[in-house]
């Protein structure tokens, strides 16, 4: 048989599936991952193409059409999800609000992830005084309530999208540091790390080539958890009036604006609250699924 001939089916059974085939099988066999990734991907597309999908300008006010109910409560198709107290189209604001939530979740998780991962890996790999210093900083951070600190800082600096992102990014690194430190401690004395040191690999090369790939699955879980955490904290800050400021569309701000009418028009709170719940749930499902798929014990 030449190299160009079709492989014998019996030979394929002996060799077994390739790593890429096994990965695809694990991915498409995990329902939670597929559901979570589909929802997150759909909302990401909605956020990217918001100008094309939104039926109206999310900032345009019309007091003549204020407080119109959604279609399923007797409204018309001109405003499928109704209008708010200023006559702004609720569906358009909901679509543009996806941009705010995803932007804050991704950027805040990225900032905190870089800080916490660097600290955790350094503490776990070097140990000694580095570990003592990092552990002390983690304990200091854990002693500070996130919501109260965020409220204080945002109240001092003023509420805006940029301030909320930076505050959350610099407050949510502790979980990254704790998990990465523990994961690094587990793998730093493994045979492949010792072999890399024995052949003269530099410390950065050992960390990037040997340690990081073997703790990446834990990092994925923390990233998704902190994305969801940042989105919820932004919604809470906006609800309290210290997050994203009007008229910027934000799901937390929409809940805050609708709370005064909650007893008469509950849909004004339920609609943005339900979308926020679905996004956070989807992110967590996706994170758990990625952890299961990329776990070392599931690669064989």
UniProtKB/TrEMBL annotation:
- Main localization category: membrane
Top-level taxon: Bacteria
List the GO terms this entry assigns under cellular component, sorted alphabetically.
plasma membrane
GO term, biological process aspect, one: transmembrane transport
Query: How the protein sits in the membrane?
Result: Multi-pass membrane protein
A Pfam family cross-referenced in the UniProt record is BPD_transp_1
The family database entries (Gene3D superfamilies) matched by this protein are listed as: MetI-like (1.10.3720.10)
The residue ranges crossing the membrane are 32-54, 100-126, 146-173, 219-244, 264-283
Q: Which UniProt keywords apply?
A: Cell membrane, Membrane, Transmembrane, Transmembrane helix, Transport
Family statement: Belongs to the binding-protein-dependent transport system permease family.
Name of the protein described by the UniProt record: Peptide/nickel transport system permease protein
């Amino acid at each position: 048989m030449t190299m160009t001939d079709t492989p014998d089916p019996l030979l394929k059974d002996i060799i077994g599936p390739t790593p890429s085939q096994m990965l695809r099988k694990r991915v498409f066999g995990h329902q939670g991952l597929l559901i979570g990734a589909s929802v997150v991907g759909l909302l990401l597309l909605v956020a990217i193409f918001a100008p094309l999908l939104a039926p109206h300008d999310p900032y345009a006010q019309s007091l003549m059409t204020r407080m119109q109910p959604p279609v399923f409560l007797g409204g018309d198709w001109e405003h499928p999800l109704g209008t708010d107290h200023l006559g702004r189209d609720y569906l358009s604001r909901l679509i543009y609000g996806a941009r705010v939530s995803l932007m804050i979740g991704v950027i805040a998780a990225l900032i905190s992830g870089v800080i916490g991962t660097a600290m955790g890996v350094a503490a776990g790999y070097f140990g000694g005084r580095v570990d003592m210093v990092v552990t002390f900083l983690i304990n200091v951070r854990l002693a500070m309530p996130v919501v109260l600190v965020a409220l204080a800082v945002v109240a001092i600096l003023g509420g805006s999208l940029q301030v909320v992102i930076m505050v959350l990014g610099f407050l949510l690194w502790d979980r990254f540091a704790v998990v990465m430190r523990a994961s690094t401690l587990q793998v730093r004395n493994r045979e492949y790390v010792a072999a890399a040191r024995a052949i003269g690999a530099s410390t950065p090369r050992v960390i990037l080539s040997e340690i990081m790939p073997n703790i990446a699955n834990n990092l994925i879980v923390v990233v998704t958890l902190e994305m969801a955490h940042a989105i919820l904290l932004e919604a809470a800050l906006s609800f309290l009036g210290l997050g994203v400021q009007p008229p910027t569309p934000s799901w937390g701000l929409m809940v805050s604006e609708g709370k005064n009418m909650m007893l008469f028009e509950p849909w004004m709170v339920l609609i943005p609250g339900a979308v926020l719940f679905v996004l956070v749930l989807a992110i967590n499902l996706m994170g758990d699924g990625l952890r299961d798929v990329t776990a070392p014990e599931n690669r064989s």
